Amino acid sequence: MLAAELDNIETLKKEVNISKILFQSASNEKKNAALENMIEALEKNRKKILKANELDLKSAKLLLDSGKMNISAYNRLKLDEDKFRDMIDGIRKVIQLEDPANKKVWAMRLDNGLDLYRQTCPLGIIGVVFESRPDVVVQISSLMVKSGNIVIMKGGKEAQNTNIILYETITKALNSTYGMPENVVNMILTRHGFQEILKLDDTIDLIIPRGSAEFVKWVQENTKIPVLGHSSGICHIYVEPTAKLDEAIKICVDSKVQNPSACNAVETILVDYEIKDKILPELVKKLQENGVEVRGCSECASMLPDIELADEDDWFTEYGDKIVSIKIVRGIYAAVRHINKYGSRHTDCIITEDKDIALAFSNNVDSANIFVNASTRFSDGFRYGFGAEVGISTNKIHARGPVGLEGLTTYKYLLYGKGQTVQEYCKGEKHFIHKRLI
Amino acid sequence: MLAAELDNIETLKKEVNISKILFQSASNEKKNAALENMIEALEKNRKKILKANELDLKSAKLLLDSGKMNISAYNRLKLDEDKFRDMIDGIRKVIQLEDPANKKVWAMRLDNGLDLYRQTCPLGIIGVVFESRPDVVVQISSLMVKSGNIVIMKGGKEAQNTNIILYETITKALNSTYGMPENVVNMILTRHGFQEILKLDDTIDLIIPRGSAEFVKWVQENTKIPVLGHSSGICHIYVEPTAKLDEAIKICVDSKVQNPSACNAVETILVDYEIKDKILPELVKKLQENGVEVRGCSECASMLPDIELADEDDWFTEYGDKIVSIKIVRGIYAAVRHINKYGSRHTDCIITEDKDIALAFSNNVDSANIFVNASTRFSDGFRYGFGAEVGISTNKIHARGPVGLEGLTTYKYLLYGKGQTVQEYCKGEKHFIHKRLI
Question: Which of A344, B206, B304, B376 fits a disulfide with B255 by CB distance 3.0 to 4.6 angstroms?
Fold first, then answer.
């Protein structure tokens, strides 16, 4: 359902609540058939879709030329033959994933003839809001269909022509699939409509915002619906005295340079006081050779006069760029304290050859992802082998860290009896056996 | 830490954040030692504790006599030798439970020498607010210690003397345990202090309210912290045409009568039109014999003139008493529609001998607990074999249904490498193998 106007929100609400019930127990075969139809329809409409994207690019070019849009936003908006192929490949990969719903994940025999199962099921209705990349429409739709959820999407205005034709193509394909309910994929076009969506805490089970840290924070503050995501990624590497120094430098450079704008890029490197003279000059040199601006604590800056002095704000900053801050710390607990104070509980790494120190670090750092001797950039659903990534969560509730399809499900308890009453167990006529089956 | 005054909230916040880090990786041995010390200290102070309770009972008696407190609240407040023994037994049972934290629950080899683990860990800091039963102080403290969490409790004013001495006894016992951080168990005494606690969404990970439906709803509406619980328990039984009628009646009576004020007691019985004449007279008779007031839909009431007519409000009502409403429905989908519309997503049951119908019911009812041929009263953490119950959740996010110790944990990802960078994998020099280890 395409809800362009506020008037449609009430209708949308009713419709998705009906579709949710019809869709929640859909079989893997049916969902995969729907995804196959999606691929076919997108292939068939390729030219039309690319043409709509050209229209969006034309308007965007004006913004680009007048300095109102930056080149990376413009590039993200662009849907070319290569990206189109990747988009289709993405759906194929989702088809191959295991069905995250309708799985019995735990079972207990309460008594003979009284068996309890915990079975996964879709969350229900999920809101997703994202910025300019139109290929996200296809990616999100395929993840939601595979997990049995209803989705209400809101894309960026600048990609509206592409988003609408993608939405229409997908919806037609889903509706042509035997047994699929209507309105599995829904799209909101206006900002006002999106604000109304945020109020539907009696209907929407989860909101997934994809965008800048400020935007995610804004969503978190403006809805009572649970939000899956992270508002910032302030990741740390602590180089401990026993670290192999060449390895430490290699990991620091990769964590910053490989993709400086990623949320899992390192922002602050903590170097232990004991090894500062041995590593700092080489580390800073390598970072600078890779085009990284280095800012250091006063102790650091006094050692290396060609780096800028970091201030308190730096430790709280996600640069999202080729800038890194370095601080000299005295021992693991100073490192842990810094990370727990300034970090964003996303991904933090220690470089060490001492297993006990590694254990203390992982026990005491309160983050979703804790790495020993590996680049922070590994913190990602695909690299983790989930086959898909819905987002990275710094929440502790529900899903934490990179979130795959599993994060789009919940569970229900199913109890199969033969007429048992609780009174029989309270009176001692019958006794629980509580035997785990799964 | 006992925070009686608002001034203490800021100090409390700092202290619990320190204790959280120190406590989160505590071993099962250490936590059990602390629980053993708790038992010893409570036993030693038994007389003092019972005396403090007498003081609370004295004030409560005045309220009772003047009609400002009902007898069941008065009884809940009372801590006698029997309840004291149960309280101690409760701690012993918690000691025997498996440690829910520090468990590796999933593992993936990303590449040789690059292993990823998902390990459970405590949520961190949990707020619990409850009404008059002082034994809850002990129960909650033991669950929090076992799961490695810091707790901030707020009990009812009417139990203040008992709560304070229980809190002091527990804290002394925990602090005397080797290696335990301070301030694991904390207590707020004022309502104002509790309101301040609800604002600490940067510190507290979860709020567990135990009290009336209105109170839980009030908490949900007045905090940005995730709330674990259910505001109401409107449970249904649908008697399907293939049901064994004697079994259906037995289950309906047990579900209402065994404990009418429990959240998992049945409130509405849906009887299929096809069997109405065969079951309704006997069902209503048995309910009435057990002191249950029966209210029925108009069709029902015209059949049985001695029952009251239910109105629209009845279907939305959790009576919490020996009252039940009965509605005649036409087929399973009418039953499902009624349950999804009027229910509270807590526990719903079908009585049927048809497996396909049972499957359709469990697929289409959107509730935490779905039962086939068993009393709704089985919906309980102890009966489910969890060994402990933190509460029953009708949320879909994080934990659903009866929640045991597992619901007080989250997880972190731990990645152990040997200096790998992401660039090596992006350039194709190395390849992920993604082999599941656990």
Answer: B376
Q: Tell me the fold of B235-378.
A: Aldehyde Dehydrogenase; Chain A, domain 2 (3.40.309)
Query: Which of 3.20.20.60, 3.40.605.10, 3.30.1490.190, 3.40.50.1820 would CATH assign to domain B2-101+122-221?
Result: 3.40.605.10
A124 interfaces chain B, CB cutoff of 8 Å: yes
| A:349-408 residues touching chain B, CB 8 A cutoff | 358, 362-364, 366-375, 377-379, 383-385, 396-398, 400-402
Contacts of B369 in chain A (CB under 8 A): 412-413, 415
The predicted model scores a pTM of: 0.92
Facing residue for A373 by CB, picked from B116, B369, B417: B417
Fold of the CATH domain A2-221: Aldehyde Dehydrogenase; Chain A, domain 1 (3.40.605)
Contact in structure between B348 and B339 (CB atoms under 8 Å):
yes
Per-residue confidence (pLDDT) for residue B8, from 0 to 100: 82
Is 0.95 exceeded by the ipTM? no
The domain locations on chain B are: 2-101+122-221, 235-378
Report the chain A residue with the minimal C-alpha distance to residue B115.
A384
**Which residue in chain A has the smallest CA separation from B395?**
A205
pLDDT at A268 over 60: yes
Please provide the average confidence, as pLDDT, over all residues in chain A. 94
Tell me the nearest-neighbour CA distance from B14 into chain A, angstroms: 12
Note the pLDDT tens digit of each residue in B29-43. 999 999 999 999 999
Query: Contacts of residue A372 in chain B, CB cutoff 8 Å?
Result: 414-417
Question: Distance (Å, rounded) from C-alpha A347 to C-alpha B240?
Answer: 53
- Calculate how close chain B gets to A94, using CA atoms only, in Å: 16
CB B354 within 8 A of CB B328: no
pLDDT of residue A7: 56
Q: Average pLDDT, stretch A114-141?
A: 94
d(CA A407, CA A395): 12
CB contact A288 to B (< 8 Å): no
User: For A277-336, what is each residue's pLDDT tens digit?
Assistant: 999 999 999 999 999 999 999 999 999 988 999 999 999 999 989 999 999 999 999 999
Contacts of A208 in chain B (CB under 8 A): none
B218 touches chain A (CB under 8 A): no
* B72-78 average pLDDT score: 90
Give pLDDT, residue A23: 95
